[in-house]
Specification:
The chain is mainly α. Helices cover 87% and strands 0% of the residues.
Length: 261
């Protein structure tokens, strides 16, 4: 029993130590933003554009597919049942609450973690193992300016943008299901959806985009730069960055739901 409690205590101590290290990393990354020099802004801008291209533009097809298929499946399987009980108006609540506000941000973030979060961890871990981070420090360049900030900003902008794309396509996919299966006109469909869309839904969705983007930018960067010993740590860092990012995203989503109620 004592050994069990001791093991739990050591695990909790390691967890709090890692949480503290991540919080310190996040503070240093955000604190580095006002100290970014003029020349550094140009370099960081080019890296940011590359990050936006990779994270947002090249992921657009995946988001379109996820959004269209998900909304069509959900609406097509529920609209017939709702029509039978005379509750077709609930399709708007289902679309706004279940898809636009909850599943949209969550699935967008998970897709970006699996696609771009893993790439960020692997890239920064490789840079660390090859000594490029030490070389930047030796030249007087802050690694946060060159490696972290552009990826952090790129993830935030990309997640927020892709969430909007996800929601717009989801509304269109839901209409295809409502029109094809339930025979609903586009005027009635849009009036039902817009009647259920509130300012709170928009604010919560954008808040999730901001928070999820910060998580995807910070945790993979932290895990990548934490690699020290050799190339064998790179896949382990990628796994840690992916798993921890997804776990934090789910926790944040649950917390936001609790606060919004």
């Amino acid at each position: 029993m004592i050994d069990l409690l001791a093991g739990i205590g050591r695990g909790m101590a390691r967890w709090f130590a890692q949480l503290g290290a991540l919080a310190r990393f996040a503070f240093e990354a955000l604190h580095a933003l006002p100290r970014l020099p003029g020349a550094g802004r140009r370099v960081a801008g080019r890296i940011l554009l590359n990050q936006l291209r990779f994270t947002a533009l090249e992921a657009m097809g995946l988001i379109l597919l996820l959004s269209g298929v998900l909304s069509y499946m959900i609406i097509s399987t529920t609209i017939t049942q709702l029509d039978r009980v005379g509750a077709s108006e609930l399709i708007g609540k289902l679309m706004v609450v279940a898809i636009v506000r909850e599943l949209g941000p969550l699935l967008t973030a998970i897709a970006i973690v699996g696609r771009s979060g893993t790439a960020i961890t692997a890239e920064l871990a490789t840079n660390t193992v090859l000594g490029e981070v030490r070389a930047l420090e030796g030249m007087g360049i802050d690694p946060y300016h060159y490696l972290v900030l552009p990826r952090l900003a790129g993830c935030v902008v990309s997640v927020c943008t892709l969430m909007v794309v996800f929601d717009v396509v989801a509304v269109f996919g839901g209409y295809l299901a409502a029109a094809g299966i339930g025979g609903m006109s586009i005027q009635r469909y849009l009036s039902i959806v817009l009647a259920n869309l509130t300012t709170q839904d928009v604010v919560l969705t954008m808040a999730k985009g901001l928070l999820f983007g910060l998580v995807i930018g910070l945790i993979p960067s932290f895990e990548g730069l934490a690699v020290r010993r050799g190339p064998t740590e790179i896949p382990q860092a990628v796994i840690r960055g992916t798993v921890r990012s997804i776990a934090v995203i789910f926790i944040l989503a649950a917390v936001i739901v609790g606060v919004a109620q």
